[in-house]
Design a protein that fits this description.
Order of helices and strands: EEEEH
Radius of gyration: 19 Å
Strand order of the largest sheet: 1-2
Number of helices: 1
Structural class: alpha+beta
Strand content: 15-25%
Largest sheet: 2 strands, antiparallel
Shape: elongated
Distance between the termini: 47 Å
Number of strands: 4
Length: 68
Amino acid sequence: MEIVPKNKSIESSLLLRVEGRSMECVESTKFLGLYIDQKLTWNTHIEKILPRLSSCSFLILSIRDTVS
């Protein structure tokens, strides 16, 4: 992953080889439980965890009357 400033776009693709193998360039990756994107914003992380937060919120709402 090539990290760039928020207001810049990637103009050239970086080609990286490790032991003769080409490495794929990605826009985001998961590292230590956090999703990191090229511009180091929280957008990708929020998009990835939002479905889990939504389902947990629904679960809490559905059991709130039966659990103290």
